[in-house]
């Protein structure tokens, strides 16, 4: 290892500012050509904008920068800007100066619609104790740049790393970050080289039940040279994961590790897959986040930071980058805010705050969830239907799930964005869709109840029915009129 590279890596363990990941890559001879993060600067001297948010109240945008050169994002500026409204991440800026910014992914071959934008508040974390926000990708959400410059094309060498949430994944196609087609269409084997993270196993898999770090090379997720399985590609589910894929002519690697501690492991390093089209490669140089090359957008995951390089980085360079990431001290923080009304085991009720409906409470009739007029003199059956036991979140213990008092074992969940009450089937999907994170009411009253798995969406009453609505979204129940009132609820003791 060169002395200057080692010095940069060691300095990175002391201070975020001493050397950023892209400084380390440059010292190793493989400079960054794209650098994206909503949490921190990836160059020691970077003090520009990391990302842009747009608020729902007036569609005004704000660029979020760093607290200092080479430092952590200024989350306080976002929090102030987004007070009592919703905010979406519209742009993730490229820190290299090349303009390789990520914006809303356009229609493609698999999903012929513009993808959704991510909530600006769906993935709060801390870095060295300072608050920041990641990019929480729900199914249907994605970012892209089909006109990137400097990225690898054809069989040219490149490196990539990303920091993900190792507990937020699914088996959908495809939660990727990296090099893809410039047309948003599948143009054949070898036209992509991106990092994949999740449990999709149709094309390939690693050992155990996943999730795995794999390479999306188009028409195949590869864990090694074998098209189907590389048992050396281990399941990796740390809360914060460093994922690496790099490739050059007839050589590529998968590496990964815990982004909060320890070193990288090499899960594969060797020849290209033994399938036609992958040697030589035909990379096109677009950049994607959260989706596949043809805009396949059924995956989920959380992204905090990532880069693409020119040239094939050495393991030593990547090891120093890993030391820098660990030194950033990613840690979890509260997913709930502004409310103390939720105690696991208690019975609660939710009263509407919209002027028309302040005598109405969230209740259910069978599986259907609605609002009904309820009072202390109501029938016992109705009072039970309007009361909910607070449980630890089935899909994330940092949030909550709400169990029906009159139908034990059944929970509020969303199905096609309508709220229903169903018996818990124990599936991962049910658990995630029945988990909700309360925050201060968007209209200044009570609490707003945000979906954990779709954090742009909140409990909303519309024509007395209940949905998880997004401010200004595509459905009728997403209408902006009275949105803040309709998603704010006074939470008090249950009727039963």
Automatic annotation (TrEMBL):
Cellular component terms per the entry's GO annotation: extracellular region
SS bond list: 22-32, 82-87, 173-174, 399-437
The keyword Signal belongs to this UniProt entry's keyword annotation: yes
Top-level taxon of origin: Eukaryota
Signal sequence region: 1-19
One Gene Ontology term from the biological process aspect of the record: arabinan catabolic process
Alphabetized GO MF terms: alpha-L-arabinofuranosidase activity
Catalytic activity: Hydrolysis of terminal non-reducing alpha-L-arabinofuranoside residues in alpha-L-arabinosides
Pathway as given in its UniProt record: Glycan metabolism; L-arabinan degradation
Active site residues per record: 218, 294
Domain Alpha-L-arabinofuranosidase B arabinose-binding, chain residue ranges per copy: 351-491
UniProt cross-references to InterPro entries, sorted A to Z: A-L-arabinofuranosidase_B_cat, ABFB, AbfB_ABD, AbfB_ABD_sf, ConA-like_dom_sf
EC number from the UniProt entry: 3.2.1.55
Residues in Alpha-L-arabinofuranosidase B catalytic domain copies: 21-331
Subcellular location: Secreted
Keyword annotations from UniProtKB, A to Z: Carbohydrate metabolism, Disulfide bond, Glycoprotein, Glycosidase, Hydrolase, Polysaccharide degradation, Secreted, Signal, Xylan degradation
Similarity-based family: Belongs to the glycosyl hydrolase 54 family.
Protein name per its UniProtKB record: Alpha-L-arabinofuranosidase
Species name: Pholiota conissans
């Amino acid at each position: 290892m060169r002395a200057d590279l080692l010095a940069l890596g060691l300095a990175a363990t002391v201070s975020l500012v001493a050397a950023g990941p892209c400084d380390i890559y440059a010292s190793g001879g493989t400079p960054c050509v794209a650098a994206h993060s909503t949490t921190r600067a990836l160059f020691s001297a970077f003090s520009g904008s990391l990302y842009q948010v747009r608020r729902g109240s007036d569609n005004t945008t704000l660029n979020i920068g760093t607290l200092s050169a080479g430092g952590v994002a200024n989350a306080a500026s976002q929090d102030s800007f987004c007070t009592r409204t919703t905010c979406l991440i519209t742009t993730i800026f490229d820190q290299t100066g090349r303009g390789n910014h990520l914006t809303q992914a356009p229609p493609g071959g698999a999903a012929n619609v513009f993808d959704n934008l991510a909530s600006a508040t769906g993935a709060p974390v801390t870095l060295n104790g300072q608050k920041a926000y990641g990019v929480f990708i729900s199914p249907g959400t994605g970012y892209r740049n089909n006109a990137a410059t400097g990225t690898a094309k054809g069989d040219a060498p490149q490196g990539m790393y990303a920091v993900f949430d190792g507990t937020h994944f699914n088996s959908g196609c495809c939660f990727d970050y990296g090099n893809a087609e410039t047309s948003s269409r599948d143009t054949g084997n070898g036209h992509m080289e991106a990092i994949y993270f999740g449990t999709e196993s149709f094309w390939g898999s690693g050992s155990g039940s996943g999730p795995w770090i794999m390479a999306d090379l188009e028409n195949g997720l590869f864990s090694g040279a074998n098209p189907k399985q590389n048992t050396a590609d281990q399941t990796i589910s740390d809360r914060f994961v460093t994922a690496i894929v790099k490739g050059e002519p007839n050589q590529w690697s998968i590496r990964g590790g815990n982004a909060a501690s320890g070193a990288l492991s090499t899960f594969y390093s060797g020849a290209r897959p033994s399938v036609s089209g992958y040697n030589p490669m035909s990379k096109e140089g677009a950049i994607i986040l959260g989706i596949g090359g043809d805009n396949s957008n059924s995956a989920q995951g959380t992204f905090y930071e990532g880069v693409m390089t020119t040239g094939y980085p050495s393991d030593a360079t990547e090891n120093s980058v890993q030391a820098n990431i660990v030194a950033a001290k990613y840690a979890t923080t509260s997913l709930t805010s502004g409310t103390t009304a939720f105690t696991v085991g208690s019975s609660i009720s939710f009263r509407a705050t919209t002027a028309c409906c302040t005598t109405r409470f969230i209740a259910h009739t069978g599986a259907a969830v609605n609002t009904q007029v309820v009072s202390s003199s109501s029938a016992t059956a109705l009072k039970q239907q309007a009361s909910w036991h607070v449980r630890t979140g089935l899909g994330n213990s940092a949030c909550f799930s709400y169990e029906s008092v009159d139908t034990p074992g059944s929970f509020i969940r969303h199905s096609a964005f309508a709220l229903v009450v169903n018996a818990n089937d124990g599936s991962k999907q049910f658990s995630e869709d029945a988990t909700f994170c309360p925050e201060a009411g968007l209209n200044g009253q009570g609490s707003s109840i945000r979906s954990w798995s779709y954090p742009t969406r909140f409990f909303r009453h519309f024509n007395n029915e209940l949905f998880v609505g997004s401010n200004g979204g595509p459905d009728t129940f997403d209408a902006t009129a009275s949105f803040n009132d309709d998603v704010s609820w006074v939470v008090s003791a249950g009727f039963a």
